[in-house]
Specification:
The structure is a single chain. The protein has 675 residues and is of the alpha+beta class. Among the domains are: 271 residues, Beta-galactosidase, Chain A, domain 5 (Distorted Sandwich), CATH 2.70.98.10; 150 residues, Sandwich (Immunoglobulin-like), CATH 2.60.40. Helix content is 18%, strand content 34%. The protein has 13 helices and 37 strands. Helix 5 packs parallel to helix 6 and helix 7 runs parallel beside helix 8. The chain is globular. The structure holds 1-deoxynojirimycin and calcium ion (CA). The site of 1-deoxynojirimycin has 8 residues, from loops. Calcium ion binds next to loops.
């Protein structure tokens, strides 16, 4: 009885506050603007207690009233509030990432924290941040008497579009991000994965994603009404969506806004929304290019398991190390080195510390050290996180003891615990646990079959890269990826963070070893090829950002080919990145600076095109030497993919270069200052 009276008291107190602030208006609103007032966001509390946000960009309403709130376990709605108070904050910082597409990142925004109390007396804080390149909001359920556990059955956040849109999207799937993309009007996109990228009819570009997924489920967007999308969450096996305790912070729901497609790539909104670096000594975190015993397995030339065709032999590893050392590539990945691959798919299949008998791991690491090469270790889990978590400390300590500083992890298979999804909160907890443990052991990570990236690399920069993309492997054993796929990725999946797409294939039609290839994947119809020219493959090394960037082909396919000179010594962390020109899904030209030198990459879709690049990004009154790698006149991704021209010329900032890209083609420039 006393409790009940308390609740009434609270309600009256809060509503007095509410009405004292809003004596006339029927709605209570709070507005914040981005530093240059490009973005204006409004929080709206209706008289009935329902809460919404809306957004204007350059004075134009882009998002209408978009709902907020939750449904908790027991059909318990947490969506009718009274306002308590606000706190505003202005932040303007420049921070230096350990690696990235630029060496200095500006983080400037206005924030409002709106403290709310629901009709049952529960506290909920709502944060909104307005940046000149976008908007983000998140919830906090703070510590409060009487509430410790929170079980979310529905997040009632919605995004309500105003206007006409076309969009680039892939189907939502709680287990995989390895999808092709569609380009359709908004109404065809019924259930989408994020980043979800759109173009408004007035040429405003948007990408919707989430940032800082720490202990929550990952989101998809489900159409629920003409112009409305609801935040949908991958469930636990028991049907609940998020199980947590106070204080709970949801991930940020973020919208990048830009006037050009390239603005989406240049935006740092997703990383900026994450906490500052939690690793004190970051000197061991080193971006690099790598090669590895990998593509040969996907081609079916060699195997992960022990036997006549075993790929990870001591001898083969040394061959890759020799190649890497000779061609200024710093890392060598070795897959299939440990026992257990014969049990892939079974419970507790993999042993993470026992090499196969034809592979001397110690000797290989020692040999690599003498050649100045890093070995990239590999932990395939098949999705069995229970088993991995049991052995992970021992496995990390083992690698570290040998001098291995980088681990590629993999989750190819159904998740154990049985019934859990790859993208649910259970796996978010697992991936984040692995990331933190790897930081403790000073191990860099390349995660395959990951949860979608959300900028956590700002906080844990040892999380170098992730797959979570329909990458190169699909070209080895399926219909593969069309040229438009790689022209779409930087604006969609790439918005989330680095991509281990694994480009750089030179044997485009996969003919070099055709006689030795064995079919091992049911998607393989025997017609696989890389749908690209060699120049396009080189450009992808630059265009698809990853601080660990693989040149995926076999040493024998590279050796003797002058095109590899573009990959030798290629930086994978940059001082500056500019998108010169782009059209989503059609073409993209990107320029990246490392100290005084520039690297330019251009790619096109199934259409050939001529691109004119003005070199005005170079320093005035300086002379540069440019090596240009471009498609041969007769190049075509289907009929003549390996035709390539390499030229050298002197250039200055007032010059422009005309690049002729073949169908599925590309071009690259390596521009060095003449001191
Ligand atoms: C899938 C990963 O994406 C791929 O890179 C790896 O080779 C296989 N799983 C085997 O672990
Ligand atoms: Ca994969």
């Amino acid at each position: 009885m006393i409790f009940f009276q308390n609740k009434i008291f609270l309600f009256v107190t809060v509503s007095c506050l509410f009405f004292s602030n809003q004596s006339i208006a029927r709605e209570f609103t709070q507005t914040i603007s981005s530093p240059s007032k490009l973005v204006e966001v409004k929080f709206i509390l209706q008289q009935d207690g329902l809460a919404f946000w809306s957004l204007k960009y350059k004075g134009d309403t882009i998002f209408n009233y978009s709902s907020l709130g939750f449904v908790l376990k027991g059909n318990d709605s947490l969506n009718r509030f009274r306002w308590i108070k606000n706190k505003t904050k202005y932040k303007n910082e420049n921070w230096k990432p350990v690696w990235g597409q630029s060496s200095l990142i500006k983080n400037e925004y206005n924030e409002i924290k709106i403290e709310l109390r629901d009709f049952k007396g529960r506290l909920l804080n709502f944060y909104m941040r307005a940046y000149d390149d976008g908007f983000a909001f998140r919830y906090e359920t703070p510590n409060q008497p009487g509430i410790t556990d929170i079980v979310i059955m529905s997040e009632e956040s919605r995004i309500s579009f105003n206007g006409k849109y076309e969009c680039w999207w892939s189907w939502a799937d709680y287990n995989t991000l390895e999808k092709l993309f569609y380009h359709t009007p908004l109404d065809s996109a019924t259930h989408v994965a994020t980043p979800f990228t759109l173009k408004r009819s007035n040429n405003v570009y948007l990408s919707i994603h989430e940032a800082a997924i720490e202990n929550y489920s990952t989101m998809t967007l489900k159409r629920d009404g003409e112009q409305n999308y609801k935040i949908n969450l991958a469930p636990w096996a028991d049907g609940t969506l998020v199980k947590t305790k106070t204080p709970m912070f949801s991930p940020w729901r973020a919208i990048i806004i830009a006037d050009k497609p390239g603005g989406l790539i240049e935006s740092n909104l997703i990383t900026n929304l994450n906490d500052t670096c939690q690793i004190k000594d970051v000197s061991w975190i080193k971006p690099m290019t790598y090669v590895g015993i990998w593509w040969e397995m996907h081609l079916g030339i060699s195997k992960w398991i022990l036997g006549e065709k075993h790929g990870a032999t001591t001898e083969n590893a040394k061959r890759y190390i020799d190649f890497a050392s000779k061609h200024y590539v710093k890392g060598v990945l070795i897959e299939g080195w440990n026992t257990g691959w014969e049990n892939w798919g079974k419970k507790d299949a993999f042993d993470f510390v026992t090499p196969y008998k034809d592979f001397n791991l110690k000797e290989v690491v020692k040999y690599a050290k003498t050649k100045g090469v890093e070995i990239i270790g590999h932990h395939e889990t098949g999705g069995d996180t229970e088993s991995y978590e049991k052995h992970i400390e021992e496995a990390f300590a083992f690698y570290k003891m040998l001098g291995i500083n980088i681990v590629k992890t993999g989750y190819a298979g159904p998740v154990v615990p049985v019934g859990e999804y790859h993208h649910g909160q259970c796996m978010v907890q697992h991936y984040n646990k692995v990331m933190k443990l790897a930081a403790k052991y000073k191990l860099m990570l390349d995660v395959h079959e990951p949860i979608v990236l959300s900028g956590l690399s700002r906080t844990y920069p040892n999380l170098m890269t992730a797959e979570g993309v329909r990458g190169m492997e699909w070209n080895a054993w399926s219909d593969g990826n069309p040229p438009s796929h790689t022209c779409t990725l930087p604006f969609t999946r790439g918005i989330a963070g680095p991509m281990d797409y694994t480009p750089g294939i030179f044997d485009i039609d996969l003919s070099a070893h055709s006689k030795e290839r064995e079919k091992w994947n049911s998607l393989d119809k025997g017609n696989s090829a890389v749908h690209s020219t060699i120049a396009n493959q080189l450009a992808l090394m630059l265009v698809l950002y990853s601080p660990l960037q693989m040149a995926a082909d076999l040493p024998e396919n590279y050796e003797g080919n002058k095109a590899f000179s573009f990959i030798e010594n290629l930086p994978t962390t940059w001082d500056e990145t500019k998108v010169i020109d782009a059209s989503i899904g059609e073409y993209l030209i990107i320029a990246r600076r490392k100290e005084n030198n520039w690297f330019v990459g251009a790619i096109t879709n199934e259409n050939k095109r001529e691109l004119i690049i003005s070199l005005n990004f170079l320093e005035n009154n300086k002379e540069y030497n440019a090596n240009i790698y471009s498609d041969g006149n007769d190049a075509d991704f289907e009929t003549n993919p390996e035709s390539l021209l390499i030229n050298e010329m002197k250039i200055v900032s007032t010059d422009s270069v005309t690049l002729k890209l073949a169908r599925g083609g590309g071009a690259c420039l390596k521009i060095k200052i003449i001191e």
